[in-house]
Amino acid sequence: MIGAGFAGVANASEIFVSADIATSTTWTSGNTYNLQNQIYVLPGATLTIEAGTLIASTTNVGGSLAVTKGAQIMILGTATDPVIMTSKADVATWTGGDPTTGTWREAANEWGNLTIMGAGYISENATVGNVASCDASNQAAMEGLVAGFPGDTKVLYGGGDDDDDSGTIHYLSLRYGGKVVGLNNELNGLSMGGVGRDTDVSHVEIMNNVDDGVETWGGTVNYKYVSVWNVGDDSFDIDQGWRGKGQFILIVQGYSLDASQGSGVGDNGFETDGAEDSDWQPVTTASLWNCTFIGQPVDGDGATAWRDNARIQYHSSVFMDCGEAVVRFDNVDGDGANGYGHNGTLSWADTWTTAYTATSTVNACSSPGTIYASQASGMLAEIRDSVFFRNLNGSAYTEATARGVFDVGNKNVITPGSDPADAPVVALTRGGAVSKGGKTMLPVTYLDPRATNDAVTALETAPNDGFFCAVNYRGAFGPCDDVANNWLLGWTAAHAFGLTGSTVGTVVNRNPAPNPDSYVADPLVIGGSWTATVDLSGTGHTSAYLFFYLAPDMAMIPKNGDWRLVTGPPIATIGPLPGPMASITLPVPCESSLVGFTLYSQAAHLFGPKPWRATNAQDLLVGTE
């Protein structure tokens, strides 16, 4: 639950922010901040945002926040008190100002976004004066920002400091953003230009956006615990030579608006451009571990798209429900770049068979070992130790197979068939087909993303390099034997809107004859446990047996003066109880096939006078002999 930071949105003071931030400033949880236009944090200033602070801009006014090169932002949210940046239309759906409530809406473009500009190396060939080699003077103007005058440095990113520190982002939920500035000029959920590796980014959510979820231009910033859900273009978009790392990244493709693909309906999951042009340096060279991609099975685009000499490693990940190719070879980005193999660079095929230690000799950087430090083993492009499930497009695996993705040495698994019981996630529910932007969408209405089946155990672990966590599962979430493995719970819009959780079904007591009435209690948790206290004190009972069954629909019939379940053997039999009072803990099986099932309990073999009573916090078991 949300802590004291959101003690009452209705009682918070609303502060209208209409001027750039030129001196270090703190936004506090006791206020709500309403961005009135494009706000810049100017060089030398630090904007600190306390845990539990709400930034809610007037719907369609277009307020937005950008951190300039040389400035910092410190977003200090926590798992119980996140920082939320959204629109007032979103807040209007919250019950009593409680951000753990709310309703998902088909909406976006209700405010701007968060943009951060740093001083890391970039490769961008459209700016006059930029050169093809790694050069500290290379810079570019940020997409979605409008210069106030010719030469306005507020909108520029790039430089020669890959250790750039633009601040900290912890537990940030970005909702319903993506202001459209002009044709093909839309704000992403989170825009990162030239941001360096000393910037700390973890636990970031983008829910509904007009354009991309996270877009990164160059730099070396690292990402951990990122959720991108229902954005209108690419979910995780890379450009201009990003050389960072990422771990625990969730992508759920869908739509934010009834608009064309790219402005309302999701495009590619991971879209990676190498450099502009493709023989410029630095070139995108990155390492991603523990990603979960959930596509659109009818009209979705690629899980991973590759352009302009990009070099990406995907490890211990999950790719499911892709509507196109899991490896999509685009070659060029459509903006005039020349693709793989241009001017002596590696060909597409060679990129998959060349060791990570190789660096391009074309327009070479002076210190390639420092510039390219994110990959630690393997090939420049590879997908290893990952699960592929229900990617039913006829050509889903064609390019991946040609690139050797499914060679035995890469340890990847294609889970056969399409039975939901074999899925690598605990639960996935979709709504009915809808037409959005000319595409057929099957929206994800519920997801428990914890690992099960082929995702439970990884064969490889990430390097112990101070950033990666050496976990032993595939995908962005740990196994379902621990509720805490669903790191979306508590702080995200996905959880508040009921799109994620960790439930299996309900508990129903089937009392013994002759009074078999039912009692429905709170949901069970897959992989968790259910505990009841049986209290026979004062009844004269000396013992009892309890039987537990798990099934989607169970019938009761009278038999020999008792009520019996029409079913097979119980999943658990507990008894005889050791005395008049006993605590019973029943493990709930960790299987995706149990989602929506009901736990049935039945008591029998009661000794002594009646009545008996078995209770936990919800009085789950009540009955008489």
Keywords:
625 residues; 17-stranded parallel sheet
Main sheet, how many strands, which sense, barrel? 17 strands, parallel
| Average of the residue pLDDT scores | 86
Strand content: 35-45%
Instruction: Report the strand count.
Output: 44
Helix content: under 10%
Compute the gyration radius: what is it? 27 Å
Q: Distance between termini?
A: 40 Å
The number of helical elements comes to 5
The general outline is globular
Low-confidence stretches: 1-5, 509-522, 552-567, 604-625
> What class would the helix/strand composition place it in?
mainly beta
Q: Could you say how many structural domains there are in total?
A: 3
Please characterize this protein's 3D structure.
The chain has 5 helices and 44 strands. The chain is mainly beta and 625 residues long. The chain folds into 3 domains: 1-221, no CATH class; 254-469 and 485-501, no CATH class; 505-623, no CATH class. The protein has a 17-stranded parallel beta sheet that branches. Strand 38 and strand 39 (562-565) form a beta hairpin. The radius of gyration is 27 Å and the shape is globular. It starts with 12 loop residues before the first strand and ends with a strand. The model is unreliable at 1-5, 509-522, 552-567 and 604-625 (pLDDT under 50).
